[in-house]
Amino acid sequence: MSKVLKLVPESCTGCMRCEMACSYMQTGTYQPSKSVIRVSPFERHTSYSPYTCFQCQEAWCLAACPVEAISISPAGAKVVIRDQCVGCKLCTIACPYGTIFYDVDTHKAFKCNLCGGSPACAEACPTAAIQWVEEKVQDWQGDFAAERGVIHLVGVPSA
Amino acid sequence: MAMKRHVIVGGGTAGLNAITTIREYDRGESEVVLLSGEWPYARMVLPYYLGHEISESHVFTATATRLAKLGVKPHIGRRATALDTKNNKLTLDDGTILEYDDLLIATGSSATRPPIPGANGPRIYNQWAMDDTRGVLAEIKGGMDVVMVGAGFISFTILNSVLSHGVNLHVIEVMPQVLPRMIDREAAILVQDWLRGRGVHIHTSTTVKAIEDVDGRKRLLLAEGGDLMADLVIMGTGIRPNLGWLAGSGIEINQGVLVDDHLRSNVSNVYAAGDVAEGPELITGKREVHAIEPTAMAHGRVVGANMVGRDIAYRGSLLMNILDVQQLDIASFGNWSAADRETSVLLEPRGHIYRKLVWDGDRIVGAVIMGPARGIWTTNDVGMLKGLIYSGVHLGAWKGYLQEHMKDLKKPFVACHVIRDMLPVTVLDHPTVPARDVVAVEPAG
Ligand SMILES: Cc1cc2nc3c(=O)[nH]c(=O)nc-3n(C[C@H](O)[C@H](O)[C@H](O)COP(=O)(O)OP(=O)(O)OC[C@H]3O[C@@H](n4cnc5c(N)ncnc54)[C@H](O)[C@@H]3O)c2cc1C
Ligand code: SF4
């Protein structure tokens, strides 16, 4: 079994260190807007969860690309070959998770590449809410979000 | 035993995806013959060549070397002229006859011109094939007056490239709005406003009735009165599937070749894929012609798998389009136009932001999403919308939340377990293999 980025939302404190580490690794600067792992609030702002590419087996982005600009790395990541990408955004509407992005500055698609096999987000997380482990990829957040969603669904006036 | 012979007619998106899928499975243990009017290329990246963002070679998806590595016998530059489904024989335009065990019809579409005087004169180009792009590139110069006839999706895919040449652009559309088959009127008004703000002249509800040559320029006469002068005219007035060569073949055709959930036509060893195929739609199961790249790709892969005996049933195609119009991003999905369905709308005219969800009970069956590029890509909601629609998830109580919070897709998306539902889904019942990694093994001996 290969390693995956396991998300443990219950452990996330919303400190955003993963976003910082990710953007620094991916772009060389600290700019969370270029991070490919995103921390979102659930249950107003009392719970948080990181969210990133599942490196899914269908590889919707890869299958959609008209110029074969996405390949699979030795670490098992679907990676964008930047010189090959024309910036058509087809991958971004093909991916059903919203985890491949478009960079308005470079006109290229970008996504999680597992940092070549040692993901910076997992290293940066102080509470082990992101782990680089041998496991089967799964929906780690669904139940978490559903439980914490109740507050949004009972008619409590929302922020 | 003789090797099975697969004949692929058309080397575009669908045809090439079928070939790489066949080789992914059989590694060279069948004969694959490709007949194609042109060298394989990705039509949809022509706009980037037109805008000089990529070289011409970048558009091509297979060279002679790649076809050799895939163990394909190419007949390039030849066209199919007749199909004899009784005797499994295909006739080419040079009289060659190819026999097949099974065959894929993947001949794509051609651009059509309106039936008006002067529509076929000089300095008028379609924007559908490599030669069209070469033609425009040879003529277009900064400062020119360029008129685009037709404001549909294809016209709009080249809009940025045309403008990048520094021309003065007019867009003429018969319908009362731009992009009539991609977005609704509310969204189109914002697009028109955005483009006018960037110096593009938009003429809706306007019909060209004739095109004349005047002193080396073009004069477009308008049915509503008046005229427009141009140095170059680009026609984006529609496309038609290339099916003429199937006359007399007995293949059942409606808008396109009618295919079942294995993408087989009424003749069981003849498949159809891509723009020429009328195949199952994802949500309704009804057969439709989509003429979009994702449908051509998925069709091609499914046919390739079935040709090697994999028995893959296709779940159906979801209509989806995305456009960048001068950094205004516009996407629509599925049944976005449904007039008879419940909809939720978010409209922020000054920000050029528009969102629409189309409901079937508590499921989303269509959507439009639009906004300035920077805003759109901070959330990546386009992908989650695809997931919400493709999975067919029931949103239950989250429907009400979403209607109130149209910009917060993430919570309902995650809480309704779209991830759990989507993770096991694969089109070919196994993990996708990158086409770029597929090669055929030299047959022994
Ligand atoms: C400018 C432009 C921009 C586009 N942008 C997008 C986009 O952003 N998103 C999107 O989803 N779609 C887009 N499309 C549409 C997309 O390119 C097509 O839907 C897709 O190419 C269809 O694939 P296909 O394999 O069915 O046909 P094609 O790719 O057209 O391939 C058909 C092949 O068949 C060959 N052929 C035709 N007749 C014969 C014959 N009688 N004998 C032998 N060979 C024949 C042709 O030469 C060609 O090689 C765009 C198209 C254009 C032109
Ligand atoms: S944006 Fe780039 S990687 Fe994505 S489909 Fe288009 S060319 Fe391929």
Bound molecules: flavin-adenine dinucleotide, iron/sulfur cluster
Unreliable stretches of chain A: none
CATH topology of the largest domain in chain A: Alpha-Beta Plaits
Report the principal-axis shape of chain A. globular
Assembly state of the chains shown: heterodimer
The overall strand count of chain B is 26
What is the CATH architecture assignment of the largest domain in chain B? 3-Layer(bba) Sandwich
The N- and C-terminal alpha carbons of chain B lie at a distance of 16 Å
User: Which term fits the overall shape of chain B?
Assistant: globular
- Number of helices in the DSSP assignment of chain B: 13
Would you tell me which CATH topology of the largest domain in chain B applies?
FAD/NAD(P)-binding domain
* N-to-C SSE string of chain A, H for helix and E for strand: EHEEHEEHEEHEH
> What top-tier CATH class of the largest domain in chain B fits best?
Alpha Beta
- Count up the domains of chain A: 2
Estimated share of beta-strand residues of chain A: 15-25%
Distance between the termini of chain A: 43 Å
CATH class of the largest domain in chain A: Alpha Beta
Q: Approximately how much beta-strand content do the residues of chain B carry?
A: 25-35%
Would you tell me the overall average pLDDT of chain A? 92
Mean pLDDT of chain B: 96
CATH homologous superfamily classification of the largest domain in chain B:
FAD/NAD(P)-binding domain
